[in-house]
Design a protein that fits this description.
The protein has 409 residues and is mainly alpha-helical. It is 81% helix and 1% strand. It has two domains: 149 residues, no CATH class; 209 residues, no CATH class. It has a two-stranded antiparallel ribbon.
């Protein structure tokens, strides 16, 4: 009895040690080839975004290759159309911002002087040209500026790597996305062939749930960001705030990161209004951003992201912090969907292996599905969600035969 316990303890300890060692090796390898992760992440996002359109073209009896190309061309056309629509205003507001930078600097300095005067402080000497030049000539301050601009101790390598990653994303992500869209069915079949036959149906089911949740998150987050950007821009335009479109675009883009878009947008809008000398405009700007965020959280997001993994705000914030610390911008962008996927996988194993629940019960406990309005529900019943990696018929075939067929997966 004692030897069995020791043996089990040793197995658990060495399994944990092996898992930690494998994790460390994986992180080291991932860091050495980190330039490929950003294109892969963006390519996966494009695949989740366009897969429903490719499925629709397949239902129209078009080859998957043609459907993938058409879906990609439609996406490019939409991006070009939106860019052409907003670019003139963005360009005009950008030129106006550059022209007003000297006045904005004077406004900030005057505001700092007023605040300092209330505390009987004199900051004129600190803000003088001589003081600024002396501060910039200080070697310690120069080193601080270099660290802020180029990273701690890596110099221009960070800039070069950042440029290389940008080029890789722009050039590789669309190409990878097209190949993934074309070969997605074959990739699913080959992946299942590596799974033991007795577990294939379960792996297919869990993969379907993960794919549904991630696809809903990616498409929903993009659409929600677009809605937030439009609503923020419209609200800032209504109160006649300068640079209203730039602020709305920033709020919409940063809304790809949970909790960040309206917060940064509201802060920028309030700052612009205060520098414009209108506290009431700042108040209305913040109020509008709060309203946009509340409508987004309680109405827009639940309607658009129909399949959501229940993650508490604390878990989301921790995931964003850890993701940013490990992988920078890429880590922040993928932190929430990866956390959702891990929760589905771990939750499924815990509920089915420990609690004895069925697959369906485990899925319902982890994934919150928002029912669409009745009209949309009728459309949805006619055209079921095509984002799932495997449908019910395929799961039945996998369970009965234990071997997927390429033309059925």
């Amino acid at each position: 009895m004692l030897s069995d316990r020791l043996r089990q303890t040793a197995i658990v300890v060495w399994t944990a040690v092996g898992a930690v060692a494998l994790g460390w090796v994986f992180l080291r390898v991932a860091e050495s080839i980190r330039i490929i992760w950003l294109p892969i992440a963006f390519a996966a996002g494009i695949v989740f975004l366009l897969e429903p359109a490719v499925k629709m073209f397949e239902r129209l009896h078009l080859p998957r290759f043609v459907g993938a190309i058409l879906a990609f061309l439609v996406m490019v056309a939409v991006i070009v159309a939106i860019s052409a629509l907003v670019w003139p205003t963005v360009q005009a507001q950008g030129v106006e911002l550059i022209e007003q930078l000297p006045d904005l600097y004077v406004s900030v300095v005057d505001w700092l002087r007023e605040v300092a005067a209330r505390f009987d402080l004199n900051i004129d000497e600190l803000l003088s040209q001589e003081a600024i030049e002396a501060w910039l000539r200080d070697p310690a301050n120069q080193e601080t500026i270099q660290n802020l601009l180029f990273g701690f101790g890596v110099g221009a390598g960070v800039v070069i790597r950042g440029v290389a990653e940008t080029i890789a994303v722009i050039g590789l992500a669309p190409v990878l996305a097209i190949y993934l869209l074309i070969d997605l069915n074959r990739f699913k079949a080959r992946s299942l062939e590596l799974t033991p036959p007795k577990h294939r149906a379960e792996v297919a089911y869990v993969s379907r749930e993960v794919g549904t949740a991630l696809g809903s998150f990616v498409r929903g987050q993009l659409l929600v960001s677009l809605v937030v950007g439009i609503a923020s821009s419209a609200g800032m335009w209504l109160i006649d705030l300068p640079f209203w479109l730039l602020i709305g675009i920033i709020a919409g883009f940063l809304n790809l990161i949970p909790f960040l878009g309206p917060v940064v947008g509201g802060a920028l809008a309030a700052l612009v209004a205060l520098l414009n000398g209108d506290p009431w405009q700042a108040f209305w700007a913040v109020l509008i951003m709060i309203a946009v965020q509340q409508v987004d959280n309680h109405l827009i997001t639940p309607m658009i992201q129909r399949a959501r993994v229940n993650l508490s705000p604390l878990v989301i914030v921790l995931a964003l912090i850890i993701g940013g610390a490990l992988a920078g911008l890429l880590g922040v962008l993928v932190a929430v969907p990866l956390t959702a996927a891990v929760r589905i996988l771990v939750g499924h194993l815990w509920r089915t292996r420990v609690l004895g629940q069925s697959w369906q019960e485990a899925s319902e406990a982890m994934i919150e599905v928002t029912e669409p309005p009745e009209r949309l529900a009728r459309i949805s019943r006619k055209n079921p969600d095509q984002t799932r990696l495997f449908d019910t018929q395929e799961l039945t075939e996998l369970s009965e035969e234990g071997q997927p067929e390429d033309e059925k997966v």
